[in-house]
């Protein structure tokens, strides 16, 4: 929506009011001056006005004459003002204020025209979505003013990569759109090569050289889509695929991406009915102390089975996160897990529940959990919430505040998948975490990779110095178990001890021989 008054419109309105006052004053004054001075140009009117003296026609005609002359000048100036105002409104409506490139509205309008005239031109059409890989970091580091300067520089360089008849538009934020006309594939390849070269050239920001990379997705018409909406969606999907594979890369939309989109759509649609149709269930994986070999707690794991098919959490959790459905699913998990485990969890055992990044940053997370603990009579000191490193670094200040409020309730905090590369050790000190969980990738490489073994040893030493306990995830062999005990790990979780199980099996097996392998291993 355009503003009701722009800076230019206010300025022109004020000027018009002033000039109208001046014009009226000038006409009245000039008429009076002419009558007093008896200018000869009007002597011919004398005889006529004598015949119609009661009309005061001389004064009337003089006033009308001057009013017409000044009015013509005033009207001309107002017409010029209207042209200026129309130009500004057009720029506001169709051009980006920072880069002066076509905005989303004009870019999509041009695309519609290209599609309409596709058969007439004989050209082929490619649509490219461009998204910065590190713009937020640059914006936070150098400020929004220099961030805008960078956007303008990037826009200028993108403009030089394409032809005169092509469009470079800014969709908003750090996203750009290219509409590329080409006759032969070699022409398109030449443009993509230029786009790659642009990423190698530094940009100057406040005397600092900054390098920027883009993830670029390209869709071809009519090969990849036959309408505007689908073509834009295809290019956007290719861009996100490029960003996941390798930042700074260019990806063309293909059948693999199409299949992934179809799969994602089916998962997103299925998630909407999963809770109502009771397709979700919880499995609990036991955790054991390496010092005593005893059961010390469980981690609750969400499972989804629909139409007889098991859907991996790796396939549906990120879809739920991106679509926003994770908030409803996460609330269901909290209610289900706390209610199932409250009657059977021993006083010396803990219950771990994973929080997704989106769920962790919810404004009402703390009161929701507090209400559930009170309603279900679940001891807060036996609840442990697992938070990924990514959830923490994505908004570190808020993460500190959220963790602080959760710990006031008596809840323990574990950093999940620790060692995957997101955390800063300096920031780790600022968190009030209680436990680190070593990612299973490093556990799998124990006795295979010296580097991974050294990293596990370093994490354990770091945790000890910071007074944090450590759980190793994904422990599957006795060799891994022995090595972790040798390195001084506190607890383990994995198939070597126990597989995840439904609540019914937890009730039957808690006091059985299920956990004997670990007890025997500690003597080996």
UniProtKB/TrEMBL annotation:
Query: What SMART domains is this protein classified in?
Result: EAL, GGDEF
Could you confirm whether the keyword Transmembrane appears in this record?
A: yes
- Decide whether keyword Membrane is in the record: yes
Output the Gene3D superfamilies linked to this UniProt entry: 3.30.70.270, EAL domain
Q: Which residues cross the membrane?
A: 20-39, 59-77
Outline the extent of the EAL domain. 264-514
Family matches, as InterPro entries: Biofilm_reg_signaling, EAL_dom, EAL_sf, GGDEF_dom, Nucleotide_cyclase, Rev_trsase/Diguanyl_cyclase
One Pfam entry name: EAL
Alphabetically list the UniProt keywords.
Membrane, Transmembrane, Transmembrane helix
Q: Where is the GGDEF domain?
A: 123-255
Q: Which NCBIfam families does the protein's record reference?
A: GGDEF
Listed PANTHER family? BIOFILM ARCHITECTURE MAINTENANCE PROTEIN MBAA, DIGUANYLATE CYCLASE DGCP
- What is the name of the protein in this document? EAL domain-containing protein
| Source organism per UniProt | Thalassotalea euphylliae
Taxonomic classification:
Bacteria, Pseudomonadati, Pseudomonadota, Gammaproteobacteria, Alteromonadales
């Amino acid at each position: 929506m355009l503003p009701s008054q722009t800076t230019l419109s206010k300025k022109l309105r004020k000027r018009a009011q002033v000039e109208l006052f001046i014009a009226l004053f000038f006409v009245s004054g000039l008429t009076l001056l002419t009558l007093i001075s008896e200018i000869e140009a009007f002597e011919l009117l004398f005889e006529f006005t004598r015949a119609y003296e009661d009309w005061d026609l001389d004064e009337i005609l003089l006033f009308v004459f001057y009013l017409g002359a000044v009015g013509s000048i005033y009207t001309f100036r107002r017409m010029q003002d209207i042209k200026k105002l129309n130009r500004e409104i057009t720029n506001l409506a169709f051009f980006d204020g920072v880069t002066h490139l076509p905005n989303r509205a004009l870019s999509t309008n041009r695309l519609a025209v290209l599609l309409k005239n596709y058969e007439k031109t004989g050209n082929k059409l490619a649509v490219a979505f461009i998204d910065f890989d590190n713009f937020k970091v640059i914006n936070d580091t150098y400020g929004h003013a220099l961030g805008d300067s960078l956007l303008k520089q990037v826009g200028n360089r993108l403009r030089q990569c394409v032809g005169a008849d092509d469009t470079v538009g800014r969709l908003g934020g750090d996203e750009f759109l290219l509409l590329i006309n080409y006759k032969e594939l070699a022409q398109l390849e030449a443009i993509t090569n230029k786009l790659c070269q642009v990423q190698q050239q530094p940009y100057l920001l406040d005397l600092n050289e900054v390098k920027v990379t883009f993830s670029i997705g390209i869709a071809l018409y009519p090969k990849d889509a036959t309408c505007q909406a689908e073509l834009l969606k295809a290019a956007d999907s290719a861009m996100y695929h490029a960003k996941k594979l390798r930042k700074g890369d260019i990806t063309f939309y293909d059948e693999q991406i199409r299949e992934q989109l179809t799969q994602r759509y089916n998962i997103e649609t299925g998630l909407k009915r999963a809770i109502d149709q009771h397709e979700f269930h919880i499995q609990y994986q036991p955790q054991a102390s390496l010092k005593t070999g005893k059961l010390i707690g469980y981690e609750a794991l969400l499972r989804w089975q629909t139409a007889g098919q098991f859907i991996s959490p790796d396939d549906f959790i990120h879809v739920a996160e991106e679509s926003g459905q994770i908030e409803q699913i996460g609330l269901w998990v909290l209610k289900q897990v706390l209610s199932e485990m409250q009657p059977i969890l021993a006083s010396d055992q803990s219950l771990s529940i994973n929080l997704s990044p989106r769920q962790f940053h919810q404004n009402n997370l703390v009161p929701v959990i507090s209400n559930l603990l009170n309603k279900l009579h679940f001891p807060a000191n036996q609840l442990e919430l697992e938070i990924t490193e990514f959830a923490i670094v994505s908004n570190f200040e808020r993460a500190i505040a959220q963790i602080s409020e959760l710990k006031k309730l008596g809840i323990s905090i574990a950093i999940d998948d620790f060692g995957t590369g997101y955390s800063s050790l300096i920031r780790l000190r600022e968190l009030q975490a209680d436990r680190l969980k070593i990612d299973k990738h490093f556990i799998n490489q124990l006795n295979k990779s010296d580097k991974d073994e050294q990293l596990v040893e370093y994490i354990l030493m770091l945790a000890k110095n910071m007074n944090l306990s450590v759980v190793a995830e994904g422990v599957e062999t006795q060799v891994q178990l022995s090595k972790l005990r040798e390195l001084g790990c506190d607890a383990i979780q994995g198939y070597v001890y126990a597989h995840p199980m439904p609540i019914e099996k937890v009730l039957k097996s808690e006091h059985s021989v299920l956990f004997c392998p670990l007890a025997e291993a500690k003597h080996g």
